[in-house]
Amino acid sequence: MTFTLASYNIQYGTGRDGIYDLARAIDAVCAADIVALQEVERNWKRSGMSDQPAEIAAMLPGHFWVYGAPFDVDAGVRDAQGHVVNRRRQFGMMVLSRWPILSSKLHPLPKADAGPAYNLATGVLETVIAAPGGPFRLYNVHLGHLGAGERLEQITWLRRILRAAPEQGGAWTGRDDDAAHWESDGSPPPMPEAAILLGDFNAEPESAEHIALIGHGNGEAPLYDAWAVPGAGSGDGVTFRADPKQGADTDMRIDYCFLSADLANGLRRVWVDGAAAGSDHQPLWVELDPEGAA
């Protein structure tokens, strides 16, 4: 069965025109079977102190969802009676799927202290999707913007996460004597070898980060850049247009889908929605037929 995945850094619902419109951003990817969103937030003044994960979930009622926030700081206040209104200011990733998300885990990535240069915590949201053709791991990735050195360290951690997950197994393994108490009467959730990485990697093709990610020839299990698979992508693949205000002097391809070898042959098509206006990024789409993979 063929299905679609979409990755979109939504810039917390603010488009290139500076207008905040969360619905506009989500409308651009609402038809996808699996959606990986970056820069989704809670309790920020710029987005009206809204709970964006809840709002997005309401916009896509046919999807299961999880949210993970590597950036999480206090946004609590006291009301007139002195009672604490506990709130967290969060910034992270969200995965939505038409099929159950069997498990999820948030992995914070290394962050450098760059002194006066602004830098915030980023991470990887690991999920296991019960997709047609069999479950696979989906990693929603947001690497740092600070520089190549930080990103290369983050990729080292990401590679460790990819290697370790199948060895560690699912959210639980084995069987407790009191299985009913732990609600583990059934089989443990899987942690399959097959993996897909979607997200904002803040690095261009053929960069040191890109080479480290694909891992061909360096002893790592190879990953395949979907855009580079022959016959899959067309055009320039630009996902971030030139914006001198953000230090981007040229159009760039910095949003990717990487596939493990057992899924790469099931890739049917990859494209960029160049018309979407809900963010400073463009959505990346992938059409996949896992059952057709060799």
Which helices and strands, and how do they pair?
Elements: E1 3-9, H1 22-27, E2 34-42, H2 52-59, E3 64-74, E4 77-78, E5 84-85, E6 88-97, E7 101-108, E8 123-129, E9 136-142, H3 148-168, E10 195-200, H4 208-214, E11 223-225, E12 255-260, H5 261-264, E13 267-272, E14 284-288
Helix pairs in contact: 3-4
Quick take:
The chain is of the alpha+beta class and 294 residues long. 16% of the residues lie in helices and 30% in strands.
CATH architecture: 4-Layer Sandwich
CATH topology assignment: Deoxyribonuclease I, Chain A
Please give the radius of gyration in angstroms: 19 Å
Dominant shape: globular
The CATH first-level class comes to Alpha Beta
Q: CATH homologous superfamily, by name?
A: Endonuclease/exonuclease/phosphatase
Give a quick account of the main beta sheet: strands, pairing sense, barrel closure.
6 strands, mixed
Strand content: 25-35%
Number of strands: 14
Structural class: alpha+beta
The low-pLDDT segments are none
Helix content: 10-25%
- Tally the structural domains: 1
How many alpha or pi helices? Answer: 5
Helix and strand element order: EHEHEEEEEEEHEHEEHEE
- From the N-terminal CA to the C-terminal CA, the straight-line distance is 14 Å
Overall pLDDT level: 93
- Strands of the largest sheet, in order across it? 3-6-2-1-14-13
